[in-house]
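Q&A log
Question type: sequence-to-structure
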Amino acid sequence: MITAEQREQLRGWFAERLPIDVYESLVDVVVDREEITVIGRVPAGESVKEFRARTRDQRIEVAREAESLYRRKVAWGVETDAGRALFTHLAVPVMTRLRQSERQVLDTLVAGGVARSRADALAWCVRLVGKNTDTWLADLRSSLEEVERVRAQGPDRATDSMESEEE
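Response status: OK
Response body:
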């Protein structure tokens, strides 16, 4: 989890390196442990397909530099009047332990044709929760950012422990 300040610094980094004609505007930079997703507005009159073809080399160059610097993969997306479209983004495997009642929920989704597998059913559940709890998740992320801010203002534990040993 990164702070809002770190996210803005990252956004600034991408804004500085992306050529001016790539996006009409930089909309969002989303970060997790594995990936940085850069989303921008497609210039008026250009399709997503045209955008991808026109900007491919530029995006690859910026992504290589960012991946080396930040040690995360870079994914790209666009925003149009029709919504967001993501491309070149990761699907990361996640391990979990589920009890029988939880597995039965996933199996019901598979049997009902909602998902092809338990993994797809679990991803479907996560998307559903994400859609229906946006405000709660935003509040939780904000709280985590505040915890990081307060923690960063605290005393340096390494310095404190060394001073104690000297006394």
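Response note: The chain has a mean pLDDT of 87.
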